Amino acid sequence: MKKHSHAYSGLTTYNDGHIHHYGGVTAKAKSGVPHCHYMEGFTTYNDDHEHEYCTETGPAILLPNGLHYHYFKTRVKVADGHIHCIAGYTSAD
């Protein structure tokens, strides 16, 4: 069965006087079946630190044209004594 992935990017929440950018490509998952994608990475380096994140997207959200996308929301790991949250949508595939 064919596999696919999605791109994603965004900004963290504003905490401790700053934000971070993040982005990447999800892990591949089987196409044509109910599925989620694993996501992991690091935020940009800002305010002398970065944050790691690892999470899974929600299930596929179908579009009328047959493509789909996913919602995600999680907290990044603690760094420099604080956390941020990330949330958004992947690209449609």
TrEMBL record:
Protein name: YmaF
A Pfam match: YmaF
Family annotation (InterPro entries): YmaF (IPR024307)
Organism: Clostridium pasteurianum DSM 525 = ATCC 6013
